[in-house]
Amino acid sequence: MDAASSVTCALAALALRLKNGQLTTAGKALLGALPILLMQWRQRLQRQKAARGKHPGTAEQRALCFNPAIQKEDFEERFIGTKEALESGSFDYIVVGSGSAGCPLAARLAKAGASVLLVEAGGEAQRSMEVQMPKKMWRLWQSEVDWGFRSVPQEKLLPPGRRLDMERGKTLGGSSAINYNMWVRGAPEDYDRWAEEFQCQGWSYQEVLPHFKSVERVSAAIGDASGDAASSAAAFRGRGGAVKVNTLHPPMLGSMEEVEDFLRACEETGDARNEDYNGPRLPGVGYTQFNTEGGGREDCFNAFIEPILRWYPNLHVASETFCRKVLLEKTDGQVRATGVQVELRTGDILEVKCRREVVLSAGALLTPQILMLSGIGEAKHLKEHGIECVRELPVGQNLQDHPLVPTVLLGEPKEETMPRAAYRNSSSLNAQLFWQSEVDKKREEELKRPLGADIQIILVTLSVETDQLDFAEQARRCLFAMILVHVVCSKMHRYPAILTD
Ligand SMILES: Cc1cc2nc3c(=O)[nH]c(=O)nc-3n(C[C@H](O)[C@H](O)[C@H](O)COP(=O)(O)OP(=O)(O)OC[C@H]3O[C@@H](n4cnc5c(N)ncnc54)[C@H](O)[C@@H]3O)c2cc1C
């Protein structure tokens, strides 16, 4: 029960007692406490309001306002993005970026006994309600937890010159805190191709499989129903890792006819049912798997760092700390990273040194940026920006992304029936089909090797406020299905001209 309803109930109880002329001592005490309760309630509302704007308040205020269980002392004890703490600290490794890559890496290094500093430009928004509830993720894009990048005009899009939003998480948890939280490994064939065609050692599917298994804690329901795969579920899926993986449908959503219709329609047009697309094979249609559990989104900070932070004093997190560049030392033609230059939330700029390695895990867009700012990149390009080239390398090229094409189908007006817990957990992307296009089949023949699936068709079932979408004639609530076509990363569309502003 929230503060408002508690106060209302207390007032109602008092009013009743007064009516019967029976104001008890407890009633009087409650009446006396009322101004304090109201003041606390008002302060809480003010804190929430302050935390919602663009870059509102301090990181500490944002962390505290949505989660009363987190105490101020916890915050100060655990997150050290202050000048004094960073200057007095001593670290073996500095990991830049606390996203999907940085969090598990920092956790593993710390568990192995190393002293680790995890540096993150964003704040502690991973605890906010918007981040915790996948259903609200649409609100996060272009908000203060998104870097807010946009592409340069794309001549080949319609209308020509259209710009694309390129969301990237800027908070503890990185993009795992703002994404659709679907748990998808991709096509095994792609890993094998990278290993063979590009000589990426250790990247064949058999070699990456143990790592996939080690990070996931898959619910018992997944894999076991996949016919002959009951035994192969153990070979392909992990049950003891940090990230909880679950499907929401069934049993959480109960029967949702739109989802069943979608599965049936795919089967009728010849696509096989696949109960576990993260199992032995990708193609086919089935329920979506999410990194989620009872409490909502399982972002990487919550999965890997939060549970161990208190128990590993050698693991340090500096949030709202922007890495400006890597400090490089050049001796006898060798270049060595010795630390990072960071800018704190206060605007202070300082150098933090480490004894062993600097690990850059700032994402596909910002890792190359940090390298280039540090003097690693194409000499000509660096010179244009007045940066001395320390090591000439083709950094920042060949960016590939997967375009997403939404198609909206409007359904009949319908009551929202989803249970509260399911609503909290679900991002509504309930089922998907991994499918191979004719283009990909042709490529398969040319390359003489299997390529898996290249198209990901996702069913999204949403209830929306119709006035939000300007469907004035429609009933107030309606259910509609949106099918998103999502090209899987292996055969990504190339954007030769994409550079962010
Ligand atoms: C909208 C959206 C939906 C997606 N949906 C899915 C999905 O459903 N399933 C799926 O598997 N994948 C999905 N993805 C992709 C997935 O989230 C990313 O591939 C993955 O999170 C990338 O991990 P990363 O560690 O490379 O980068 P990130 O997770 O982006 O982490 C990089 C971190 O580095 C920080 N950083 C950057 N620069 C600096 C700096 N200079 N100093 C300090 N810190 C810095 C950033 O703030 C960020 O926290 C989605 C991505 C987006 C954007």
TrEMBL record:
Alphabetical UniProt keywords: FAD, Flavoprotein
Domain Glucose-methanol-choline oxidoreductase N-terminal: 169-192, 363-377
Flavoprotein keyword on record: yes
Top-level taxon of origin: Eukaryota
Cofactor entry: FAD
PROSITE patterns in the record: GMC_OXRED_1, GMC_OXRED_2
SUPFAM superfamilies listed in its UniProt record: FAD/NAD(P)-binding domain
Pfam families the UniProt entry points to: GMC_oxred_N
Similarity comment text for this entry: Belongs to the GMC oxidoreductase family.
Protein name per Swiss-Prot or TrEMBL: Oxygen-dependent choline dehydrogenase (CDH) (CHD) (Betaine aldehyde dehydrogenase) (BADH)
Organism: Durusdinium trenchii
